[in-house]
Amino acid sequence: MEDIFKRLPEHTCGWLANKLTLYKYQDFWAVKQLHEGGILAQQSFKAEPSDVFLCSFPKTGTTWLKSLAFAIVSRAKFDESSSPLLTNLVHECVPFLEREIDKIEENHKKSNFPLVATHLPYSLLPESILASDCKIVYIYRNTKDVIVSFYHFMREAVKLSMEDAPFQEAFEEFCEGICSSGPYWDHILGYWKASLERPERILFLKYEDLKRDPASNVKRLAEFIGYPFSADEEKAGVVDNIVSLCSFENLSNLEVNKSGKRKAGSLENRLYFRKGKDGDWKNYFTDEMKEKIDKIMDEKLSGTGLVL
Ligand code: A3P
Predict the structure, then answer these.
(1) Phi/psi zone of residue 56: left (φ > 0), alpha (ψ -120 to 50 degrees), beta?
(2) pLDDT one-digit tens code per residue, 179-213
(3) For ligand 1, is residue 257 a contact (CB within 6 Å)?
(4) Is 119 a catalytic residue?
(5) What's the N-to-C CA distance of the chain in angstroms?
(6) ipTM (interface pTM)
(7) DSSP code of 272?
(8) Is 272 close to ligand 1, i.e. is its CB under 6 Å away?
């Protein structure tokens, strides 16, 4: 494995006081551990037909999507007063492919829990997923909000103040495609092209649509992953209860998400819940920055019909 990294392009993020080093492996940037986890998954992961993959670029709504999907698939066992989401960070409940392959294999052996999350681009997914009929849900989000969210998450992760972490530099790197799992446009395009070939297999959900109309998108999600709500459930308010349980207001105010930590040395759970708003970019972008990133995204995504 070490040999692979010696040959890869490497970038240390100056705006993060050189505390983050990314490697470019097969056209995508990520930290070494994540690439290693992805390579390991490629070599050994065997998807089960019932698996459901929750795929995303970081900061596009992964935590929210995982929470909703978890609440949907576990609703026969738990309701909004007994859900493990009340006492655990959702990342404890739904494992990441590139970090927790053992946990997923254990789920395969011991239970029929179907959810697996990943930030891997489509082209780096293990062959067993690509060859399967497993469902894939892909969440995406307004690029400018992703940049702001990523900036704050990383800055706080390495404990830098805003004065010490120049936003403009973070922005410029993002525009060059350099950020964790970047370039963003290629990440989206990989899943988008695959969804055109097999639309029944990949559902695209947009963060802003989920914000605007959570109930109908939660119903879409449940149906797509094979856990549709019955008419009786809808009448009994189960959809609304899941929307409320997983709302930013609810989750971000839980003690576990306000002051918890997964384990010593890991990130504070609160970092996954910042503002949960749509349009926060307006507080950070100059007109020039807006123009620049809009132009890049328009060019890269032209012809897809995707609007970010
Ligand atoms: P902001 O930084 O803009 O607030 P990810 O989960 O992919 O890491 O993305 C994190 C972003 O999703 C953060 O955005 C976070 O606040 C927001 N988020 C987390 N949980 C959410 C929820 N339940 N509803 C809406 N947004 C949520």
Answers:
(1) beta
(2) 999 999 999 999 999 999 999 999 999 999 999 99
(3) no
(4) yes
(5) 37
(6) 1.00
(7) G
(8) yes
